[in-house]
Amino acid sequence: YIMVIPKMFNVVYNYTICLFITCIISLAGAVQVSFVFRDSVMVNDTLITLGDIAGIRSTDGSLSDVLRNFVVADAAPAGYSRFICRDDLITYKVQSQFKSVQLIARGAVRTCIATNFKELIVGDVYDSIMQYINSIVSWPAGSWNFSVLNTSDKIKIFNMPYRLEFSGINTNRPKGQFSFQMAIIQGGKVMRTPLRCTMKISLPVILAASPIMRGERITPDKCVFKTMDVTHYSVILCDSLSQVVGKRALRQIQEGNVLTTKWLQEIPVVEKGDAIRIISNINKVKVAVDAVARESGAIGEKIWAENAASHKMVRVVIKSKGHAEL
């Protein structure tokens, strides 16, 4: 929504207009203005003007218009009230801006200004909440179910257009119970309320089709796919055969357990104590030296190796069985 609140502009030009009017009055002679303050009023804005709380009469029409739009205070929050003292307002705020004008104040000594409001129910803006969630969530389509837990919460806001902003979700894969902020913006006022939510995630993952022993090489017949609720898992679950097949189990895995990356290990192509050949490129010249692996490792892993001639320890990357590079 686009907010248009004319009174907000008074804050910018009030003092300029006041100076202009004062200059004209000083040339034309003293002008008298009469105010009749009301006992109580209701406003539907973020600001309170003299015209909201008092009737204004003057022989100078342009001066009356300026005074009616003169901002005297911020309005109370939506649904609440505040008081303004007539004599303090006239003496310290109005007269100081209109020094050449004779101001006469009558009516209520204290005016109660209530701020009009309407209740916004969280559930009424559910579509806007879902639009925000859809813009940040990267879970696969159809794999997540989102709901707001406090849809019945009510917020008092000004009885005027508003716009919403959301913040507080720091991941594109939220899950479980979490909360974030909804800001309701009306003019210069911002009201914030927490949204308590839950998101359930269901994904196809790999389970052990039968018991897997520690150190056993995993084959396709040991795996089965199943779509299940993974909301409360904090580890990385295996969801493709390429993450599982050909790897070695680091622990015993029971039938029906979900396979995780922490339970699996690439099978080393080089074992500790194996003889390996280290290739290095020096000035575009390939140099090969014999060495002994001092660690086990899979392809792509870094291990320590001992130069067979100099016995110097070097860090190498395993390229294939029996071969490594500096």
Short key terms for the protein model shown above:
42% strand; alpha+beta; 326 residues; disordered N terminus; 5-stranded mixed beta barrel; 5-stranded antiparallel sheet; 22 strands
What's the structural blueprint in terms of helices and strands?
Elements: H1 10-28, E1 31-37, E2 40-43, E3 47-49, H2 50-53, E4 54-58, H3 61-68, E5 71-74, E6 81-85, H4 86-94, E7 101-107, E8 110-115, E9 118-121, H5 126-136, E10 144-148, E11 154-157, E12 163-167, E13 176-186, E14 189-208, E15 223-229, E16 247-249, E17 264-266, E18 275-282, E19 285-293, E20 302-307, E21 313-320, E22 323-325
Parallel strand pairs: 1-7, 2-8, 18-22
Antiparallel strand pairs: 1-4, 3-5, 6-8, 9-11, 10-14, 12-13, 13-14, 14-15, 16-17, 18-19, 19-20, 20-21, 21-22
Would you give an account of this structure?
Residues 1-13 and 24-28 have low confidence and may be disordered. Strand 18 and strand 19 form a beta hairpin. The protein is built from 5 helices and 22 strands. The chain is α+β, with helices and mostly antiparallel strands and 326 residues long.
**How far is the first residue's CA from the last residue's CA?**
62 Å
Q: What is the CA-based Rg, rounded?
A: 38 Å
Q: What number is the mean pLDDT?
A: 89
Low-confidence residue ranges: 1-13, 24-28
Summarize the structure.
By secondary structure, the chain is an alpha+beta fold.
